[in-house]
Amino acid sequence: MTGPNKRTVQKRPDGKYEVVKPGASRPSAVTRTQADGIDRARTILRNDGGGELAVRAGDGTIRRQDTIPPGNDPRSSKG
C-alpha cells in the first residue's frame, strides 16, 4: 500500500521555489515566487486525487501544512 500523496514547497539556492515530491530525483515544478509554488502544488495534488501540502521556511522547518481534498486529513474534526 502506498502512503499519502505529498508535495513540499521549498526555496532553492538560486532564490526560486520548487515543488518536490518526497523521494523524487527532481522537482515537480520550479516557480519564481513561493505563492506561485503553493498554487502549482495545489493544482498538482488536486489533479492527482488530493493529498498533503507542506511549505518550508528558510531554515527548513515546516511553517504551514494543508490537506488538499479529497486527501487524507489526519484531523477528524469538522471545519
Automatic annotation (TrEMBL):
Lineage: Bacteria, Bacillati, Actinomycetota, Actinomycetes, Propionibacteriales
Segments of this protein annotated with the region Disordered: 1-32, 49-79
Name under which the protein is recorded: DUF2188 domain-containing protein
Top-level taxonomic group: Bacteria
InterPro entries found in the cross-reference section: DUF2188 (IPR018691)
A Pfam short name: DUF2188
